[in-house]
Specification:
By secondary structure, the chain is mostly helical. Helices cover 51% and strands 0% of the residues. The longest helix has 15 residues.
Length: 93
């Protein structure tokens, strides 16, 4: 097996590893809610609730469940874009 760091062609390639590379979707969502303010959390959950015709509490249970998809998969439009930018700011996307 060759050492990739000895290969001059590959020496400039750096792989950025974010928290999202090692965390499950529900863990990323919980972390996102922990690092953002309550207004942001409420906006995200209200958008999901409105889209799926459920309560905000049900939306929170869904996106933090161990089988949850990525938080962004539950969102559309401007809320999705804003959430993605905030997640990137906190190295969660």
């Amino acid at each position: 097996m060759r050492n990739l760091f000895d290969d001059k062609r590959l020496s400039c390639r750096v792989i950025a590893v974010t928290q999202s590379d090692i965390m499950k979707n529900n863990e990323i969502t919980k972390r996102f809610f922990a690092v953002t303010d309550s207004k942001t959390k409420a906006s995200v959950l209200n958008a999901i609730a409105a889209h799926y015709g459920i309560t905000s509490k049900e939306a929170e249970e869904e996106v933090t469940d161990s089988e949850a998809e990525s938080l962004l998969d539950y969102l559309t439009g401007a809320v999705r874009t804003a959430t993605h930018l905030l997640m990137k700011r906190h190295n969660l996307a």
